[in-house]
Amino acid sequence: MIDLRSDTVTKPTEGMREAMACAEVGDDVYGEDPTVNRLQDMAAAMFGKKAALFVPSGTMANQLAIRLHTQPGQEVIVEGKSHIVRYEQGAAGALAGVQLHWVLGDRGLISAEQVEAAVRPKDPYTIQTALICLESTHNNGGGTIYPLATIERIRAVAVAHAIPMHLDGARLFNAIAATTLPPAAYAQHFETLSVCLSKGLGAPVGSLLMMNDLTLLDKAKRLRRMYGGSMRQSGILAAAGIYALEHHIGRLKVDHDHAKQLARALQQISTVRINPHDVDTNIVIFDVIGHRLSPSAIVAALKKEGVLINAIGGDSFRAVTHLDISSAMIQEACSIFSHTLAN
Ligand SMILES: Cc1ncc(COP(=O)(O)O)c(C=O)c1O
User: Fold this and answer.
1) Which of 59, 167, 174, when mutated, tests ligand 1's pocket best, judged by the most ligand atoms within 8 Å of its CB?
2) CA-CA distance, 207 to 169, in Å (whole number)?
3) Separation of first and last alpha carbons in the chain
4) Distance (Å, rounded) from C-alpha 300 to C-alpha 310?
5) pLDDT tens per residue, range 64-102
6) With contact defined as beta carbons under 8 Å apart, do 142 and 150 qualify?
7) What does the pLDDT look like over 195-230, one tens digit per residue?
8) What is the DSSP letter of 249?
9) What angle do CA 68, 126, 96 make, to 5 degrees?
10) Do the beta carbons of residue 340 and residue 266 sit within 8 Å?
11) Cα-trace Rg, the chain
12) Phi, psi dihedrals of residue 138, rounded to the nearest 5°
């Protein structure tokens, strides 16, 4: 089966499993797991931040950040199709007591002008803006990379209004691999940022929340405990993360090339609408128009032929390339798409 549903479906490689099996461990609630400490130090140094906190998921990292920067009754500016809006089960409202102020982006990217317009006036009766969240790469936008210049302009708005910024960098490593910009070039503009080890990097579990403010780190540790995310001998998981950081960042470019190849093949099919130039990284979003089958029947037909993808609403579909997808699998997927999607 060629599983293009998500880059979260990867299984740990032999080398990664070996690193996990050999990991030195301790009780991380006591701060005594040397492998967790090493992963956190490595990540913080890589992103030019003072501290990193290992957490079980990207959702937890985002939700800790929202809770850290806000008070109940405040508002967070966030893109309308972001993971925080769509897939975190209303956690920002349920756990932090905040309201999300959606701004609709272009392929998931919002502009400084949109952010400026969304910041609430500081008067005694309007809800107060406490945080600006960006997502890069943007999942629903199609793996879109925020241009650094856009982030800088949004940052200027945030600084002018004294509003902190959080980056949902679940797939920031894809942006880093694609642009070859140093990780700190992105990280410097955010009070907190999260990255996932369990997406393109291929680790089974884990995300990191990074920051400069050590008071925030203390608070984040307490909240992680409150949210049930404190772990014990989690060095076994952190070892997979270290292995991923050491071995799997450079190869993300292969996934990006595969995604482009897939997009170019899809463009040749008469029922498919896609612009391969829109494929920045490893996510391919395309529409199928006027096909005799419904979207769910298209997914089922592709599955029967050996390819898994997701229908993501309306006429749209998403295919994601990753570590467990070889060039031969991409070639085969292209031919399956061309005979299954042709009307
Ligand atoms: C952009 C983005 N942020 C956050 C997450 C959450 O990660 P997790 O599934 O580890 O909670 C995802 C997961 O797909 C994501 O795509």
Assistant:
1) 59
2) 10
3) 23
4) 10
5) 999 999 999 999 999 999 999 999 999 999 999 999 999
6) no
7) 999 999 999 999 999 999 999 999 999 999 999 999
8) S
9) 25
10) no
11) 20
12) -95, 120
How far from 161 is each of 8, 135, 169, CA to CA, in Å? 37, 20, 23
- According to DSSP H, which parts of 200-282 are helical? 214-226, 235-247, 252-267
Using DSSP's 3-state secondary structure scheme, residue 107 falls into: coil
In angstroms, the CA 180 to CA 183 distance is 9
Q: Which two tokens stand for residue 200?
A: 């393109």
> Residues, the chain, total?
343
**CA-based diameter of the chain, in Å?**
62
| Contact yes or no for 66/131 (Cβ under 8 A) | yes
Q: Is the Cβ–Cβ distance between 23 and 239 less than 8 Å?
A: yes
CA dist 255 and 164 (Å) reads 33
The single residue listed with the structure tokens 């790469």 is 137
d(CA 14, CA 28): 25
- DSSP state, 163? -
pTM summary value: 0.97
Block residue for tokens 């130039």: 277
Does ligand 1 come within 6 angstroms of the Cβ of 139? yes
Per-residue tokens: 7: 């880059």
Ligand 1 atom nearest the C-alpha of 135 is: 1
Q: Which atom of ligand 1 is nearest to the CA of 207?
A: 10
**Separation between Cα atoms, residue 156 and residue 162, nearest integer Å:** 10
